[in-house]
Design goal:
It is a single chain. The chain is of the alpha/beta class and 262 residues long. It has helices spanning 19-23, 44-50, 63-73, 90-99, 176-196, 205-220, 227-260, and strands spanning 6-12, 32-37, 54-57, 78-83, 86-87, 109-116, 130-131, 134-138, 142-144, 153-155, 161-170. The strands form 2 sheets. Strands 1, 2, 3, 4, 5, 6, 7, 8 and 11 form a 9-stranded mixed beta sheet that branches. Strands 9-10 form a two-stranded antiparallel sheet. Helix 5 (176-196) packs parallel to helix 7 and helix 6 (205-220) runs antiparallel to helix 7. The N and C termini lie far apart (71 Å).
Length: 262
């Protein structure tokens, strides 16, 4: 099968249980699959190399800088970014191939919807909420943000954006405990980012963040269609959103105390 003028890059750390599924369909799209590893100890590197990926080590600098580092390692003009817990179903692989069938794709960048697959599911629920970030783009038209926490492609002014029909399957939850640990770590990174940029979250949000975030996840993002597990994940999301507010309040309180000391 002829591959495309497309590089695929993935950032990873200790993803031996999920990365093989992510890599399996990618050979049908690209001869340049790049995995940037930030210090795995579970066999991730060996599994990625066995699947034909180029594995490059880079110590963790944050989400945006790590993805920018990965972009720089890619050989082709078109880039596709996947996370190590995501999978392209056959219909999406075929759709991406069809974009290049007549030559250069019509748009400069493509949004691809991403829907979570919860434990016990084989595919996203038909009514599952799906985020539509830009994931496929020409490297001359965009690059990942330098933010350590915000995972997005910043496009040049005037870049033409289209959206693919297919959906990336996101196997984001290993377990409830693993999800909570991941969200706790992400809250710490967000608070560090706020401090670095001299920003703060208003104190009043300590009282409103949890119920509003739960409403957003459970109703607006339709977690209610996933039954009990949907309720659990909506609660976890709301707690994470509240936790970042609480941690930011704690950070500023400690700073004020230190500044008052002689």
């Amino acid at each position: 099968m002829v591959t495309l003028p497309l590089s695929i890059f993935i950032i990873a750390r200790n993803e031996a249980d999920r990365l093989p599924r992510t890599l399996e369909p990618l050979a049908a799209l690209s001869d340049d699959i790049v995995v940037v590893d930030s210090g795995s100890t579970d066999g991730t590197v060996a599994l990625a190399e066995a699947a034909g990926a180029r594995v490059i080590h880079n110590d963790w600098p944050g989400y945006g800088p790590q993805k920018r580092f990965a972009e720089a390692q890619c050989r082709h003009p078109w880039l596709l970014n996947l996370d190590a817990d995501e999978w392209l179903p056959p219909e999406l692989v075929a759709e991406i191939r069809a974009l290049f069938a007549a030559g250069t794709p019509a748009a400069d960048a493509y949004e691809i919807r991403i829907a979570e697959v919860f434990p016990g599911e084989d595919a996203p629920h038909p009514l599952a909420y799906a985020l539509p970030p830009v994931r496929l783009y020409h490297r001359a038209k965009g690059a990942y943000s330098t933010s350590i926490v915000h995972d997005r492609v910043d496009l040049v002014p005037g870049a033409k954006v289209a959206r693919l029909r297919g959906i990336v399957h996101h196997f984001s939850v290993r377990s409830i405990g693993d999800q909570i640990a991941k969200l706790n770590a992400y809250a710490d990174q967000q608070v560090a980012d706020l401090a670095q940029r001299g920003k703060r979250i208003p104190d009043w949000r300590i009282f409103t963040e949890f119920p509003l975030a739960f409403f957003k996840a459970y109703l607006i993002r339709r977690h209610f269609v996933r039954g009990i597990y949907g309720f659990i994940t909506a609660m976890n999301f709301a707690f994470y959103r509240w936790l970042r507010v609480a941690k930011d309040y704690e950070r500023r309180s400690l700073e004020r105390k230190r500044n008052r000391q002689p």
